[in-house]
Amino acid sequence: xxxxxxxxxxxxxxxxxxxxxxxxxxxxxxxxxxxxxxxxxxxxxxxxxxxxxxxxxxxxxxxxxxxxxxxxxxxxxxxxxxxxxxxxxxxxxxxxxxxxxxxxxxxxxxxxxxxxxxxxxxxxxxxxxxxxxxxxxxxxxxxxxxxxxxxxxxxxxxxxxxxxxxxxxxxxxxxxxxxxxxxxxxxxxxxxxxxxxxxxxxxxxxxxxxxxxxxxxxxxxxxxxxxxxxxxxxxxxxxxxxxxxxxxxxxxxxxxxxxxxxxxxxxxxxxxxxxxxxxxxxxxxxxxxxxxxxxxxxxxxxxxxxxxxxxxxxxxxxxxxxxxxxxxxxxxxxxxxxxxxxxxxxxxxxxxxxxxxxxxxxxxxxxxxxxxxxxxxxxxxxxxxxxxxxxxxxxxxxxxxxx
Length: 403
Prior knowledge:
Helices cover about 40% and strands about 15% of the residues. It is of the alpha+beta class. The mean pLDDT is about 90.
């Protein structure tokens, strides 16, 4: 690959650049001091969320402007056209520096929505959206899930009806992360109710400040509200903001969903590592059962990291991961459950009672948040269906013949 640095050279180059623009992270903090948060979903106030979004956006703009953003994209979009897996190499170097932690709206914008615009957008749409999204001048959220559809995204009921040179959208979306800071929402809508459900879908980019768009935070068990309901009440969307052909929205949606599962190699690993540290610093000897649980969790983290490397290898080979991504997502949610099980065993009542002791009650944020990832990014049941049908070649079960 002429002009492309080798992985070691690239990582050294990234390290040099990072040293010039960001302070290094402190050496591993002393156990029992510092922030003990292990929240799975952010629990910031509205003001804190916007302040953190602004800081993260400033950092992403610095990366982009100095040639370290959009690494796999061609130069016309501000990138360097490096292999896709170089983004993972960069992130591994960046993790050693004190930079803002990206909330979900950033990878959704850069890694899910922007690639879908590149594939399905018109030339004018690419010119209008890609650079601003990659630089994070524009942020995007996913207006996908609906209460009635559950995990069957093709069963969406949000309607889009032709109106002069555009469309009028009416419906209700739920579980939308980042809706309060996003400038655009990618809305999956039903445009033809008289054809098979997968054929009657069209995708639109909706201005989140458009008349008729209402965002309502959803209070989570942890006390935060990183998710939202979004109501679309006769929202007018110009046809120029339709993404992909009319009736081909299911294919556009699959483009976004395929990208959503590729980061499972790191999902929940920080908390698993923290749980193992808790086991090492427990002020009493571990029981035999606790030792076995800790060893099991340690092995699970190794397997998850190896699965993540398989995804990276697939990208490096120029193919889109299939089974690797679904296996990785399933393994990540299992690791999160194993993390919860170990911490419950180690802490007992101290997990449920806020005594003020460092590293104890904070684990309720993990316990209450982790189950959400069995649904987010494609439910565990959907992942198993993908593996059964696409890897094992099993037929779909006919309707009405459930076991």
